[in-house]
Task: structure prediction
Amino acid sequence: MASHDKKTAAHITGLTLFKFLTLLAASMAALVFMASRIYYYQDVHGDEFERRAINQLMRSALGSESAVIPNRGAIMDRNHHTLAYSSIVYTVFMDVRMLDGRTDEQKENTIKKTAEIMDIPESDLWALLAKNPDGSLVHNTHYRVISHQNPQEIASALNAERLHDIYTEEDTKRFYAYGTAASQIIGFQRGESLWGIESRYNRQLTGVNGRVFRLYDSSGRGVITERVPPQDGNTVILTLDLIIQQKAESVVAKYGHEYNVDYAAAIVMNPHTGEVIAMAAYPSFDLNDPMNPELITNPRLADEWALLGLGSRELANNFDTIWKNFNITHTFEPGSTFKPITIAAALEEDIIGRSDTRTDSYFCGGSKVYAGHTMRCHRRSGHGWVNLREAIAYSCNVALMEISEKSGSAVFYKYQRDFGFGELTGIDLPGEESASALIHRLSNLNASELAASSFGQRFNCTPLQAINSFSALINGGYLYKPYIVSQIVDSRNRLVYDRKPEVVRQVISQETSDWMREAMVDTFVYGTGARARVAGHDIGGKSGTADQGREGEPGHHAAASFIGYFPADDPQYVVMTIIYNPKVGDTPSASFMFTELVLDIINYKRIPPSSQAQAGSGSVFLDDYTGVPVWQAAQTLNRLNADFQFVGNGDIVVGQFPKPGERISQNATVFLMVERTSDDELAEVPNLDGLTLRQARTALLEAGFVPMVTFDNPSNNYEDLNRVYLQMPDAWQKVTPGMEVRMKVRID
Result:
């Protein structure tokens, strides 16, 4: 029996030891696992869990908690110019409960010093300590805000005084460095509402809140303050070039005001990537005060809206129209800028030929009839026989109608859609319009609608759709998805997003694209874009004018547009300008806007002259200046570096010699007959002959003219050594004030 008990005891002892060792091993494994997890959480998620732990501790204690708002990420242009940024400001608040328990002397000192530093009446602060009839505090709180968004110097001064129960806490304020620059693109914060980039990239721009927690003991006395710092938002880098953006905005404001338009707009893109380099619209507003009517860039609207009163519903609705980005939210009939797409589609399908033979030419008698409706060419007398290149250059409606007849509805519809009309471009901006409801379905493209659509009428598109499709014409046939944000970097300057160009589809072949790119240069040589020519630079493109809506119906008005690209042999920029619903005079051409903006880009980027530019070929085709204001005629001829003389006094050209369309040598003089057609005062051109360049410039500016200079020797451009020997217009002539006067100078 004893032996059996000994065996049993030994067995139990062995079993216990086995269990003990097993338990020990499991415990060690658990400890290793826990250690590894602790290390993981501390090393990988240490900041996050520390933040959570502190917040949990603070919430469970007797105290008050407030958020520390992080700085919103900056918005920069492609050259890292800061367009929008946030800065630390301070909220000043009073612990009313605590201050109420202080001595009268302590209260008086606190209120007096606070009022002095913040430049506010002492009575405002005493009011925060007001009592109810029963003796209780009206504002019975540890946190009563005195003022928001105070600068650093206010906070520093208050903290230095160590005043009883007056505290400061960090906040953030958004600033827009250039006011109206890119306002409809950048957008803004207004309460919970966000616009533009601020809306589309809100998640990336928004940081992580920090926390400030003030602990109190049981008596209500503050004993400790804990702070968890905020994490600033990411920086968004745009494709915009601030300098080109500002030049585009200056041009649209100038012509928008001059023609009293509803809208004027300009877009600059890289045709090989889809990057938006500039996107401007008139009117625009100041991002720092987006509901201030005095800061609208349209003076007429500024005066009218100022009468409505701040906070009125009508004023808010009006601002909504200019907060929106016209270039992606508004639609218009593109007119003749669409014609190259009709031609490219027919070329790609081998429906028409490229030769100059009669079989590949078109006769324009001025109109064609469809279903009893006469559709006219812009040249009512017709162009006669034109080949394909001439059809583009002269912008012949009849030739386009015949080409669309040969192509048929199915081919036209396919390429119209392939080029992106009727669908979103996919740009990374909010509010884009597709215009899908404003484009004909295939079943609706009857003969009349097809004919009108062939030259860009009776359907709508956005300005961005128009320029993006035009880019595909000249870049090898590739339709890109346009974009405006190129990179995003975090608060430690680490790259978190890098956008690459994205091809949506190839719509035409390289061969067709190359032919179109070369052919559209003729528009500037002898066609409808001759006025937009830039001396020394090969440029291609297309002008466009279209009635918006049906004649005689409500809302009928006009719009003019121009799209061009340069350098023509390898386009780096494609530029579009728009004048929408002008209310002064006849429908103006958007070509002058285009030329001015292109010249700004050429000068800014120092783009060298083309090796075989049309303006340097020794001769030019003379445009038709009849009916053109004298200032426009002078500006165009100055850009061509052509000599000219006005015959008579006046504000409008009524005749010319040589005749329009003739080829003239560049040293020939163009004579323009002018007459007066308005009651506006004319200005007399001063006599500049023999004056130094400095004296001549002063005389022109004092007389209200814009001086332009041509040097015989560009290296000798000394203001006091060069003297004027020729001027255009002539001295004593009475013409439109404010126009350009060109003077030729040489070393005396």
Remarks:
- The two ends are 140 Å apart (CA to CA).
